[in-house]
Amino acid sequence: MANLVFGAGIWAFGRIVDRYATDGYGPERSTRAMLELAAQVDGLDHLDINHPFDEPDLSAASVAALLDGLGLRARAVTPHLYTREFTRGAFTNPDPAVRRAARDRVHAAVGVAAELGAGYVKFWPGQDGFDMPGQADYARLWELTVDAIRELATAHPETQFAIEYKPKEPRVRITLGNAATTLLAIQDAGVDNVGIVLDFGHSLMAGETPAEALQLVHRQGRLVSAELNDNWRGWDDDLPVASVHLFETLEFLLALRRVGWDQPVLLDQFPFREDPVAALSHSIETIRRLDAACERIDVDALRDAQERQDAIAAQKLLWAAVG
Amino acid sequence: MANLVFGAGIWAFGRIVDRYATDGYGPERSTRAMLELAAQVDGLDHLDINHPFDEPDLSAASVAALLDGLGLRARAVTPHLYTREFTRGAFTNPDPAVRRAARDRVHAAVGVAAELGAGYVKFWPGQDGFDMPGQADYARLWELTVDAIRELATAHPETQFAIEYKPKEPRVRITLGNAATTLLAIQDAGVDNVGIVLDFGHSLMAGETPAEALQLVHRQGRLVSAELNDNWRGWDDDLPVASVHLFETLEFLLALRRVGWDQPVLLDQFPFREDPVAALSHSIETIRRLDAACERIDVDALRDAQERQDAIAAQKLLWAAVG
Amino acid sequence: MANLVFGAGIWAFGRIVDRYATDGYGPERSTRAMLELAAQVDGLDHLDINHPFDEPDLSAASVAALLDGLGLRARAVTPHLYTREFTRGAFTNPDPAVRRAARDRVHAAVGVAAELGAGYVKFWPGQDGFDMPGQADYARLWELTVDAIRELATAHPETQFAIEYKPKEPRVRITLGNAATTLLAIQDAGVDNVGIVLDFGHSLMAGETPAEALQLVHRQGRLVSAELNDNWRGWDDDLPVASVHLFETLEFLLALRRVGWDQPVLLDQFPFREDPVAALSHSIETIRRLDAACERIDVDALRDAQERQDAIAAQKLLWAAVG
Amino acid sequence: MANLVFGAGIWAFGRIVDRYATDGYGPERSTRAMLELAAQVDGLDHLDINHPFDEPDLSAASVAALLDGLGLRARAVTPHLYTREFTRGAFTNPDPAVRRAARDRVHAAVGVAAELGAGYVKFWPGQDGFDMPGQADYARLWELTVDAIRELATAHPETQFAIEYKPKEPRVRITLGNAATTLLAIQDAGVDNVGIVLDFGHSLMAGETPAEALQLVHRQGRLVSAELNDNWRGWDDDLPVASVHLFETLEFLLALRRVGWDQPVLLDQFPFREDPVAALSHSIETIRRLDAACERIDVDALRDAQERQDAIAAQKLLWAAVG
């Protein structure tokens, strides 16, 4: 791409825990320490930042100053809508008070995003769904989801929102689980300022072909952000870019070029056992390498092979560019 | 349900082949022989019938007479859009002549459906998609798909059409692969007389929860037919109803009741190694058993447990009704 | 079964965290509090207990006294071999000092098991494996795994050990990922006092049919323990028993009867969003219900249907017993 | 590899059918025509040949002459044990007469293999298994499987046999479904002249990492053949080599080098919609390209990175070799 700019979720630089290593993978780090690590990644200059911040008394202004001092920028603000209070749902929680608390988190995030100059506020409704058959009134979950989207988008008409869909984790089954379902929810909400974050790994998990999902979202005019990483297809492993699916990543980059993407490409990685600076630097190096491969692809020949459905010819063109 | 009526795809009664047992599972049967077997299944009186018929000179009138004589009715007509001529796509075939041939098959099926008094013409675009990364221009596949839907629906404004989505097989990756994507394609086509056949097994394959997919399709006003069967989740095994997923089937039947379903429930089974009459009779017996269980469920208590997200209480209500 | 006795992993009663709700699902609880909750579950009297205990200065003697006072018994002791220190492997960690630390944890667990009168020490090598293609020398991982099994089993010839296999989580890919691979590793170790914990959910994740895996492990004389729970097949959701897969659970119980199982049946659940006492009580109720169904099955008729491969007849026998 | 030699299953050159396109993908071809096509693939000189031949009166001597005339050789003979007669199992069929018929097919194949000078006779027990929960007596299926292996291997002590495992298709669930289970069955049979065909795609389907499975089979001294192709992980799509999983294929080739592989590498492809000569030629070109990449990898550095579990360093070494 003419202007390849990179961002990352700040969580890559913090202490990760899971249900087994409850004492964590790597050391605990302050917001400042995480940002300092981020600044060490060659090519990385945008961040998706969670709010509330880890330190309760840290102000948005302080974070803005930290970013500025390190040459970083906020690409997005993602309110924590999946922590303890929201484990039975944020927008769809059975308790109206919790649903209000979720909205309050979004209102606060909108303010922080404005202070940080972030491009969008991300909804990641990872606890909104259900766990086992028979448990859920799906129509009710849908209504609560759509109502929340509508209400929040309407309350902040100047703010761009974006939903990151995912089929499962942490909730066993998540309501907004794939690209098309999320597009329908946004339609139902009837709002213009809500789009989609297309996360490559979530798309694989959802059984989609990521480049195909991207064109669908773009066609509907809802592509707000694109995140890269990789996994073994059944779970959100958040591995380095193209560590498993090289051609699907290449194809995704081709699709971004085709829609004229000029915004940052974000990394959503969880380097459980790796040095985060090394892991993210490697992903950026990989994307640059694949972007150079895109440059070498004879796009007209590829389009022609695709028009004829000549799969072998198409594969040969990709191999020639990569190898 | 007040009025539980059953149908089946006629293919359950014919000779099945696959890429290994190319000489077939069971004997070859004429259309007449298949219909006679269907008539032996207790409770079965509707059929989804493929066209062209196996015998080239069999007329629709003859089939209508056969059906009538056996006390059977046509629920749907499904044109063969996935046979040899269409292996690289019907609506999205790279060859315009083949795309026209696919439309001609649909035009013919519309005529046959009228003669048989069938409720809908089914599109099952199982060859429309791609095989490997890099092969497809997804935007182009989408346009060709939407164009075909629009053109055919517009040409036959009095005919009800219904699309049966499926993520793969026979094509390695199918364009209309899940419920929400198919709803978006119908929207794009801008037609009123096209809806969806919700096949339980295809929904499992697509990573959906079938009862959740059903409410989504219903909410959009596009539910035309419902098909039952079962599988091991990764592939379209077309097994007897609830042989693997009992509670998800029960929940699906509850969802049908909730939307006021009063049309036949269809069986889409491939009894590779079983007697088809026994296999389908067993499925109907299972559905009746589960329908009786639905009758026993305290729906208000279930709704209340769902509203509270009390999963254990919901499960207890289902178990009490089944056991 | 003649003598249906139940146990559970103690973790069901503690605070669960994951990588998103890092502040936990439910309140933090002391060992005493967890045991008191366990004692409230009707029918539960055995526990699989992790070591080191949460409280560093809690002695095995104190835990033994607590158990005794509550009418509970230790079924197993499971050393924490997957916490922070071991995130790059316990038995296969690249650092020899960490491999020694893992052995030391096992030595300690053996002592605790003796004090608690536990039936076995469980190896759950959830961090032993790898993350992405190219990373691992599989032969080396295998040797380190087999060496550790051999060394530990040889060091404690009076102790029964049991390995719980699982294909992934927390490690992205786990070396001992299915039943047969684990049997081969035990063979390679050449020891008699190591067997297998067959966890129903892990078996589903591994693409196995749990009852089939059980007969394989039993045939090799290596069945030490059996754990029940359920999931949606792709991930270890640790849901209530038979909440998704009713017939596969029934078949598993039939297989346990057939091998003459007279040991406790354990529950491995993570009730993230449920009351643990309610969630585990419900599972025990379910198992009792299914055990009563087993009692009603005409086993000779079932065996006869199986011998003829009459799948429909076999299904009818199961349905008749359940409904 | 020092001596990279290629083979393929002859089925790639014939007419493929499936349960939808029952009239076939591509034209019907005689054995002669298939062999002539095979001879056109640059680099291909070994074949895995099915028996009985398509033409009932074709003799093994005629096929030997055809092969010789075209500069081809038989690598393996694979008896049809999965056609109509065997749809409820070959070795495990409930009917003893069918089990005898299966053995007769193997006896005949042994004779043909001798006449053709083939390296091994392949068992591909794709119909041996079951379809739905409750249907099978797993212990009985195991015994029948092991008995057949033992009896056939003992009857032909000079013949090398090899089993190709696969988790499903055509049977819904196949008894010999993964590498380790198959190794245990061979052990139980107690024979020396039976090994394993490691098919890359079947290994992916089984949830294995193919290079890891290969080392396991090699360690047990049972690696007889290796087949390459690719798929989307959930099904046996039999796509061109590395069209989806580039690094896993590269790693598989590295593993073959490490075990000193000097036998042909076979292609197991089903080019449903592609020209078979083009599709197989492309795969050979890909393998050669990846073999050249293997040559460029600093194996000592890779081993060192693996020993340290430095996943990023290992990935960088692979990327440097490929790009």
Order of strands, main sheet of chain A, comes to 1-2-3-4-6-8-9-10
CATH superfamily of chain A: Divalent-metal-dependent TIM barrel enzymes
Strand content of chain A: 5-15%
Shape of chain A: globular
Poorly predicted parts of chain A: none
- Count of separate structural domains of chain A: 1
Q: Using only CA atoms, what is the Rg of chain A? A: 19 Å
Distance between the termini of chain A: 19 Å
- Overall average residue pLDDT of chain A: 97
Q: Give a count of the beta strands of chain A, DSSP E runs of length 2 or more.
A: 10
- Oligomeric grouping of the chains: homotetramer
Biggest interface: chains and residue counts? C-D, 53 and 53 residues
| Major sheet size, sense and barrel closure of chain A | 8 strands, parallel, barrel
Features:
323 residues, homotetramer, 10 strands, globular, metal-binding (chains A, B, C, D), eight-stranded parallel β-barrel, two-stranded antiparallel sheet, Xyl_isomerase-like_sf (chains A, B, C, D), TIM Barrel, EC 5.3.1.5 (chains A, B, C, D), carbohydrate metabolism (chains A, B, C, D), alpha/beta, Xylose isomerase (chains A, B, C, D)
